[in-house]
Amino acid sequence: MKRIILVLVLLASPIWAVEPDEMLADPVLEERAQALDHEIRCVQCQSESIASSNADWARDARLMVRELVSGGNTDTEVLDFFLARYGDVVLMRPKSDGANIILWIAGPVMLLLSLGVGGLYLRRRRQTVVQAPLSEADEARLREILEE
User: Fold this and answer.
1) Which residues pair with 41 in a beta bridge?
2) Where does the secretion signal sit in this chain (predicted)?
3) Any idea what the Cα angle at residue 61 is, between residues 79 and 12, rounded to 5°?
4) Which positions ≥6 away from 69 have C-beta within 8 Å?
5) pLDDT tens digit string along 9-63?
6) Which residue, 73, 71, 78, 70, is CA-closest to 26?
7) Are 41 and 89 within 8 A, CB to CB?
8) 0.70 exceeded by the pTM?
9) How large a percentage of the chain has pLDDT more than 90?
């Protein structure tokens, strides 16, 4: 049982990416910094926020967030600091304005378009499948087969 708990703790350790030496003494500022850590994407990992990443860049970014927060910057100013240096890719939830609006709209539009094209294809396919009547020779052959 102890081994299982040890393995689980070792596997879950990357979750606790914020090191004790990174934490601010003021709990209110630390709470703000941790909330911002979840808003900023690690540019090295690209799939994790800096709060859960153990990459060196993420550590530096967490330290920079704490430095900016303790320096009196607002949350918006901290996010703008990272946006100015790394672009929209640094946000875990990209803004839905400007050029990004195309990306936000493209997915649902493509889904609706593909559903419409697929529906039209199936509808036309159903309409074009018309059974032609059997010729007299085919009917005679069918009767022979059924009688056997």
Assistant:
1) 49
2) 1-17
3) 110
4) 24, 29, 32, 33, 36, 78
5) 555 544 445 555 566 677 788 888 888 889 898 888 878 888 888 888 888 999 9
6) 70
7) yes
8) no
9) 23
